[in-house]
Amino acid sequence: MTTLDNIPRAGNGHEKDARHTPANPIDQEPYQRLTWHDEVTGATGYLVVHTLVCGLATGGLRMRPGCTMHEVEDLARGMATKTATFGLPVGGAKGGIDFDPKDERAFGVLERYCMAMRPWLDAHWVTAEDLGVTQHLIDEVFERVDLGQSFHAAIQRSENPEATLDRVHAGLAARTDDGLLLGDIIGGYGVAQACRAVMNARGWDEQRTTVAIQGVGTMGGGTAWYLHEAGVPVVALADARGTLYSPTGLDVPALLDLRDEYGEIDRTRVPDDVAQLPREAVLSMEVDVLVPAAISYAITAENVDTVSARVVVEAANTGVLPEAEAALTAREILVIPDFVANAGAAAWAWWLLLGEVGLDPYDSFDRLRLEMFARVNQMMAEWNTVGVPPRTTALGIAAANLKSMAGVHELTIP
To answer: What is the location of CATH 3.40.50.720 in the chain?
Structure first.
């Protein structure tokens, strides 16, 4: 196994574990930046390990045309903050590949990238699905490079790796009563609970609170599904082809059933009473809650003035750029940051690894709902009483949790 002792490091070469980092996990240089070039296709890939806790970092692997080192670094920083906010005993990382996932050569690119990053995947980087890469594809690649499963770096530290792997496989295969894979929808469920926590804190009637969601993939689709199930009217859904809108609320399950393999809704089968609008229309909808759940950097300084929602819940990583968030906050439009709202999948994966949740999906739902409500309630209380923006409060939670883990150097995985 390759370890930190024989992997080249950035900076001065000293390991930057949690005990050596600043209190705020955002206020530091990444532990490691790596760039990879694919000789077959010319694709470029990146890995940024922002922080290590107990020698581990977690974060997904994405593939999209135009992916950059800057983007991956931002996402790694967000993962580091996310794990700290939820008190997870692991640092943050992210991988990215500048390539079209729809290209027939994409699987080969993914496999060669993982081979190049194998030392990190073997010992330190716990990864999972992200934009353009499904969990199924990642696990297939891990099998081919003889690493078993994408949680390998953590599983191999277990006292009984085979039993831990069996538990992880069983957890990833767990299904809800609706037949949905828990691992596919737990992230969206968490975002839905973040939305509901905001509604609860503001005293809004859920059945009269309108929501617009940009994105109908794993995160956006799951968010829409669970808000609809709770009776919250989702009035707009947007994918790459445009925005679907109904002022009284969309039939979310029916529309999600029309998605193709790329997460786009078949427009030929959309009901006539659903308006088909331009893709960017979703951001300017006059709704109570806007959920950017598709691409990073969706709300920018250029389009922030068109946002009419009363609250933005960031389901996509870095869905709102900092200058846009400042402008929204000045208008008293609150932004619930990504490292809280979309942390459900990461938190659940580590609860599963640590044996803190079992195979009953509803136990995982209960824990995530309680954890999400607790953090959102704290953010909303700070805003309501002293006007502290939600991000500032959430960063304070992350800093306190990271400080409490400063003396933990070993991770026990049952």
So the answer is: 182-391
